[in-house]
Model the fold of this input.
Amino acid sequence: MDRDLWHSLIGICWIVFVVYWFVAARFVRPTARRDSPFARFLQIVLLAPAIILLFSPSARIGFLRARFVPHTPFFAALGFVLTACGIGIAIWARNHIGQYWSSNITLKTEHKLIRTGPYAAMRHPIYSGLLLAFIGTGLANGEWRAVIAVVLIFLSHSWKALREEALLRTAFGVEYDEYRRHTGFLFPHF
Done:
């Protein structure tokens, strides 16, 4: 298969992700406690340029358009596989967290600590899956702008995950400490 077909398949993966995310967001519990709007704004300040760098052709300027891997069907195919796997992990995790999910850092009413599915091995599998998907998309892109985008996404998701951990620690105390000892942060711990 040629590069363009792999790139189209990557685009379809992201469309599936966005559609699932919007539909699933309708089935969540009411929020009991929320992170500050300023913290959310700071996360978006990191995430928005990353999305533009990765997906917008207008970001192909100067050294940003230089390649770090050859523009071949192999790297496009590998990028597709990583993107599809990452989105699959994120959707799997989103399905397991179910009604306790939020795009913001929140505690839901009668919040429970989820330890099933991917949450049995890692504490932030949605971010892990998305990071893998962005790495795959960046690899298929093959330009240095994608590397910068992935670094920004990693920083954004890591910072958000640390803030989530602080909130969950205050809500669940010793139970969360025990959970942390048996799971990885962004990568599985078996």
About this structure: Residues 144-172 form the longest helix (29 residues). The mean pLDDT is 92.
